[in-house]
Amino acid sequence: MARALVNVPKAARQGEVVEIRAMIAHPMETGYRVGPNGINIPRDIIRRFACTYNGEEVFSADLFPAVSANPFIAFTLVATTSGTIDFTWTDDAGKTQTASAEITVG
Amino acid sequence: MREDPLRVHGLVGRRQFLRAGMTGLLVISLPRWAVARPSLDEAIRTFTGGADVLDGRVRLDLPPLVENGNAVGITVAAESPMTADDHVRRIAVFNEKNPEANVAVFRLGPRSGRATVSTRIRLATSQVVVAVAEMSDGSFWSSRASAIVTLAACIEDLS
Amino acid sequence: MRALWGLVGIIAAVVCSMAIAAGIEGSAKRSGFDFMTPETQALQADDMSNPGMLWVLQGEQLWQQSEGRADVACAGCHGDASQTMRGVATRYPAFDEATGRPIDLAGRINSCRGERQQAEPLTPESDALLALTAYVTHQSRGMPITPAIDARLAPFRDNGRRLFQSRIGQLDLSCASCHDDNWGKRLGGSVMPQAHPTGYPLYRLEWQTVGSLQRRLRNCMIGVRAEPFAFGAPELVDLELHLMERARGLRVETPAVRP
Question: Is the confidence metric ipTM above 0.90 for this complex?
Answer without folding.
Answer: yes
